[in-house]
Design goal:
- It is a single chain.
- The chain is mainly beta.
- The chain contains no helices and 11 strands.
- The strands form 4 sheets. The protein has a 3-stranded antiparallel beta sheet, with no helix packed on it.
- The two termini are about 35 Å apart.
């Protein structure tokens, strides 16, 4: 039965199963409609070196960034945990230690390997 169902678009697990009209992944809990492309509809967000970013990833800043409307600076090497991907010019929404909530562009961050 699992050989006819597609793998999970979130974690690529092959142990998917069908519940009513949805496909479900037992490993990550993701649910999707079998006919939809799922994660393929959303554009991939990549960091400065080409790694694909996901919600909840940890990244480091690769360049000193001035905070608009303030004299604060996000220093190179600042580690940002638990990012959230959003649509728009600044495609990362995050909370930076010592500065607070702000948006970042993915071209100025590098994913931290787990």
């Amino acid at each position: 039965m699992t050989d006819t169902l597609p793998p999970c678009p979130e974690c690529a697990s092959v142990f998917t199963y069908q519940v009513d009209a949805l496909l479900t992944c037992p490993e990550c809990g993701h649910e999707w409609h079998p006919g939809s492309a799922g994660a393929a509809d959303a554009p991939e967000v990549r960091d400065s070196v080409g790694n694909v970013l996901h919600d909840g990833d940890t990244v480091t800043v690769i360049k000193d960034l001035k905070v608009k409307g303030s004299s604060l600076v996000v220093k190179v090497g600042t580690k940002v945990r638990g990012i959230r991907l959003v649509d728009g010019d600044h495609d990362i929404d995050c909370k930076i230690p010592g500065i607070g909530q702000m948006g970042l562009k993915s071209q100025f961050v590098k994913k931290v390997s787990d």
